[in-house]
Design goal:
Blueprint (H helix, E strand, L loop, with lengths): L1 H17 L7 E17 L6 E6 L6 E11 L2 E10 L17 E8 L2 E9 L1 H10 L22 E9 L6 E8 L12 E10 L2 E11 L15 E12 L4 E10 L23 E13 L2 E12 L7 E11 L4 E12 L18 E10 L1
Length: about 375
């Protein structure tokens, strides 16, 4: 199945190239987000933490994107996006310049082809359809759904996205493992498809990754098997309120990595679930000139550890202009049987079972 996905991507690329006359007209845009807030975390083993954090609502970033008209309805484009820490002026990643996105692609009426470092179909579904907090603030879906690691972004990725036809569209992503001696070790495949029209949006996403590591002359091979994530999400806008619902199923080693792996509550370290379910119900609602966000979630760990969790979150965003907003949010988690889920935000995994945000976000 993975080779079929790759073959389809290459076939689309060939069709794009064959259709391309030479006719260049280009433009480049600089864009970004500057987001900073006071974050208070409570309930962790190391005690209370209050700090100034970059990106509680949406990770601070600067990006460059551009398009070139190649004629005949075909265009080339690129996106280079780097995260940064607004509180310190440092890069969000010490090892990558464009840690968020680094890709180039082709687009026409048949669809879009993208190559490079990209966000996964699974993560895109969480942001666009599943979560009333759009994976940000203290109420983030990250608190129980496995939106961490390569479930969020992947390197060495080829993605093909279809155009929207009568409300339907889909995408397929293939990430090369690039381990010498094995075509399967480390590779990841993701896909999503859904329908969006008027007040309704529904989407299904699937993620599959191979966790094996090939051996070297000095280290033995590590065989960890595969992991998968299935996600079904929907929202419906009634005008006076927008309702959200999502369910997830995770199977296998590294299917549901914990956001905070540092044993945040002390004692016996928590174990990441290898067989779990998640569910979310939430809403957004206009109030005064702003928006209320809220959700409740349940994590059902079906392993012998039975490390379940219940969470809830609430927030309010108040726009002071078209591009600038003030916000506040609060999240709480009830862990069972030594579970290690922490209240996160868009940029941090969190250190305790309760947290609040109070911040300012500016888009440019």
């Amino acid at each position: 199945m993975n080779y079929k996905h790759l073959s389809a991507a290459l076939a689309v690329a060939s069709a794009f190239i064959a259709a391309a006359p030479v006719h260049a007209q280009s433009n480049v845009t600089i864009y970004g987000i500057a987001d900073i807030g006071i974050v208070g975390e409570r309930g962790g083993a190391d005690g209370n933490v209050t700090k100034l954090t970059s990106g509680p609502a949406a990770a601070s970033r600067i990006g460059f994107k551009g398009t070139e008209d190649l004629g005949g309805g075909l265009s080339a484009f690129f996106i280079l996006e780097a995260g940064y820490n607004l509180d310190t002026g440092t890069q969000a990643s010490s090892t990558m310049l464009f840690n968020r996105q680094a890709l180039v692609g082709l687009k026409n009426s048949a669809g879009t082809l993208m190559l490079g470092r990209q966000t996964t179909p699974y993560h895109n579904t969480l942001v666009a359809v599943a979560d009333p907090f759009a994976t940000g603030y203290a109420g983030s879906i990250k608190n129980t759904f496995p939106d961490w690691g390569t479930n969020v972004r992947t390197n060495n990725t080829v993605m093909v996205a279809s155009p929207t036809v009568q409300g339907w569209n889909g995408d397929v992503a293939y990430s090369f493992g690039e381990q010498a001696g094995s075509e399967s070790a480390g590779r990841q495949v993701g896909t999503s498809f859904g329908y969006s029209s008027g007040p309704l949006a529904v989407r299904f996403a699937y993620n599959h990754k191979n966790n094996d590591l090939v051996g070297t002359p000095t280290t033995p091979a590590v065989l960890r098997g595969s992991a998968s994530n299935k996600l079904l999400a929907a929202n419906y806008n009634f005008g006076f309120i927008k309702l959200f619902a999502a369910v997830g199923i995770d199977k296998g080693f590294n299917a549901a990595p914990l956001g905070n792996t540092g044993n945040p509550y002390g004692g016996v370290p928590p174990t990441a679930s290898t067989d779990g379910r998640e569910a979310l119900l939430g809403f957004t609602m206009p109030l005064a000139t702003g928006t209320v966000m809220a959700s409740v979630m349940h994590k059902d760990d079906r392993t012998a550890f039975n490390q379940d969790a219940n969470t809830w979150g609430v927030g309010y965003v108040y726009p002071v202009s078209r591009r600038t907003s003030l916000y506040t949010a609060y999240g709480s988690i009830s862990n069972r049987n030594g579970a290690g889920y922490t209240v996160a935000n868009n940029s941090e995994s969190g250190s305790g079972d309760r947290a609040y945000n109070l911040g300012l976000r500016h888009n440019f």
